[in-house]
């Protein structure tokens, strides 16, 4: 794996850790969940053959520190962080942007706020409850997860969250932990350390985010919505599919499920290049 160029960027209320590889037009990759820049380790080098690939830890995650550790998190602020990275790394030209899960929600916020800075956004399974026809059944999930976290702890909260996202409300039984290579183990450790912040601060504000659908309709030529071919029926997949239907645009299928980037990295990278038309 190629060592990236590492940088730090001051933004409003935080300092972002970012990494850059390759040459060519800028491709900004926005991680989801409790992941950071390392979530893209499996695809970054291959993508860097065609793009200047920028990855980063979202504010409050891993190496991106908050000025105020208890600060509430808003999609608009996370979208502005992505904009600041675009302005730094591609000040003259609009960029390609990929976001996954909660990162896809930040990418949609960026597109609606500053479309002139974006050539195309690929949004993979943004879990937007409000676009679902049965939204009322799911609005209580984020607060329920946070309450379970506060009263029972992290793992029960994550089980509640997984069940709420799963098809039919039943999460798969977790597989036994296996020994990981050092780099993957370090990545998993950072992800675990990020989970309390994710549950408390990201899940409630992002899942209930009301995307500007009229604005997205006007920008649909710059937007690609996608879902995992193995995640039919799950809440994030349904959200992305219903949003594509609402906007009257094509819905692409990527390899794997919600975490296809991790389980099928090579195939996922190929699908991503095709989604950008390259």
TrEMBL record:
Residues annotated as transmembrane: none
Alphabetized Pfam families for the sequence: Abhydrolase_1
Domain AB hydrolase-1: 25-149
Coiled-coil residue windows: none
Highest taxon, organism lineage: Bacteria
GO molecular function, one term: hydrolase activity
Keyword Hydrolase assigned: yes
InterPro entries in the record: AB_hydrolase (IPR050471), AB_hydrolase_1 (IPR000073), AB_hydrolase_fold (IPR029058)
Keywords assigned: Hydrolase
Listed name of the protein: Alpha/beta hydrolase
Native species: Streptomyces sirii
């Amino acid at each position: 794996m190629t060592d990236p160029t590492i940088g730090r960027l001051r933004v409003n209320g935080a300092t972002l850790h970012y990494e850059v590889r390759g040459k060519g037009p800028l491709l900004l990759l926005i991680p989801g969940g409790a992941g950071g820049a390392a979530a893209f380790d499996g695809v970054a080098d291959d993508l860097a053959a065609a793009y200047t690939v920028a990855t980063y830890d979202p504010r409050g995650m891993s190496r991106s520190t908050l000025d105020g550790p208890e600060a509430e998190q808003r999609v608009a602020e996370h979208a502005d962080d992505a904009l600041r990275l675009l302005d730094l790394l591609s000040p003259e030209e609009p960029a390609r942007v990929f976001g996954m899960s909660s990162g896809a929600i930040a990418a949609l916020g960026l597109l609606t706020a500053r479309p002139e800075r974006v050539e195309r956004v690929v949004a993979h399974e943004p879990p937007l409850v409000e676009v679902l026809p049965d939204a009322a059944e799911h609005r209580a999930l984020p607060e329920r997860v946070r309450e379970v976290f506060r009263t029972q702890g992290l793992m029960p909260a994550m089980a509640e969250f997984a069940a709420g996202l799963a098809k039919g409300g039943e999460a798969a039984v977790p597989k036994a932990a296996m020994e990981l290579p050092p780099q993957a183990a370090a990545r998993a450790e950072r992800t675990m350390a990020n989970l309390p912040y994710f549950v408390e601060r990201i899940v409630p504000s992002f899942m209930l985010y009301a995307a500007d659908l009229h604005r997205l309709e006007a920008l649909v030529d710059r937007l690609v919505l996608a879902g995992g071919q193995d995640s039919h029926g799950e809440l994030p997949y349904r959200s992305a599919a219903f949003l594509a239907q609402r906007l009257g645009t094509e819905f692409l299928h990527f390899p794997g499920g919600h975490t296809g980037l991790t389980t099928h990295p090579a195939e996922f990278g190929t699908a991503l290049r095709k989604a950008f038309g390259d």
